[in-house]
Amino acid sequence: MSGSGTGGNGRGQRSGGQRSGGQRSSGGSQRNAQGRERNRTSQRSFTENAPSQRTRRADPARLVAFEVLRAVASEDAYANLVLPARIRHHGLDKRDAGFATELSYGALRGQGTYDAVLARCVDRPLDQLDPAILDALRIGAHQLLAMRVPAHAALDQTVGLARAVIGAGPSALINAVLRKVSARTLDEWLEELLRDETDETTIASVRHAHPEWIVRALRQSLVAHGRPVTEITGLLEADNAAPVVNLVALPGLGNLDEALENGAIPGELVEDSALSSGGDLGKLASVREGSTRVQDAGSQLVARALAAVELQGSRKGEGGDDAVHAGSAGTGEGELWLDLCAGPGGKAALLGAIANQRGARLLANEPLPHRAKLVRQALSIVPDDVWEVRTGDGRELGSEQPETFDRILVDVPCSGLGALRRRPESRWRRSPKDLADLGPLQRDLLKSALAAVRPGGVVAYVTCSPHPAETTAVVSDALRKRDDLELLDAGAVLDNVSLTGHLEAGHEGTAQLWPHLHATDAMFLALIRKKS
What we know:
14% strand
């Protein structure tokens, strides 16, 4: 687990001075109320001070982190949605917002490792602790073991947070436990925890804060996509690194000038992209209006790949005339595109902007009404004669509109194993059962898309997971059941739409991006053409 994070120096620190019950003499000794002299050569830490001198209020940045962890645990909330709202609610400046972000995400990512440490320092099973106390302990552990926060400040401020929001009694327990945690560095704790362990999966799980089943799943994923299993350490480390915020300017509708003027740098992987160090991007007018969006570079690449892939033949237009489409004519005029699983709308907005440039139209389908609303909001910057949002089951579109669409994006619901770095809580929520439960839905959605695409058209099957049960197995099943399909070279298409031109993402016709190789989410792409 990476030891990242700054912004803690000086937090909770106090200058040295008098202690309660005594005053300092010129020689550095102290006398108590009875006049007895106490010779001490060092000050005690603040968490050992008398109750009257302990911090009694919650530091706003730490309070934000605590509120995020509580919402994640008690409300099944997503940290990336809760955190910005809490930062705005407490009015944190850029420095404090950065501290709160690292503390929230770091405590969530490292939960498995920190819980293993805390289990050695608590006199009862962790599941018998009040959940709020456990969250406060995780926040303290992350500061002590993985951030550049002085130990006395981490202890004092975390105990102060507990006193303010949980109570004086629990704060004493938190103080005692965190003092034990602070007795060792993270490396020393890992050495202690793993001293007698020989199983490589268990060692990687504790060291890199991933559940054991995910370690095994990612090892299997590397091999399935032609990568050496020795890359597992780099992949786990990449999951624990704080991701850089990726931006995209919608083609023909926005530009990156404002973002670049505010500290972003041009992206090196895909056109019209930029990398931001963070901050409140909502302050940028281009972000507020939707012409510039936060979107992972991997998501940008797979959407552009679908828009760029060559089509074959033509389909009948209105009045029975042959309408030639982008594959052969290089335009896209009159094409019909479909985003089958469009919510919350990021890829739909990028496809809509490209469709607008090329004279195509986009249907964005989303089964859940509240997510369909988000898709409409995402597409609102695109001229409204270019797109339409349908609220309905994507599994029915293939039978309702057979052989209708030229290009179809099927970004199926998946385990999200490829986005663990951006969704720090998800690794502790998912289970192997999710892979089994999602498989039938993924197959049905791809089947519907293959029915809805016209002969000569292309379906892009996309997941934010590298696991073969969600990627190559689904595609292989679809190809095996029909003889009118062909698998295109997705790696070559990704190379063509990337700025580098050499991603080394392709394997046996499909393509897999990786956090440790491409600094993107682990997006999978298969391009399937229906033979004309």
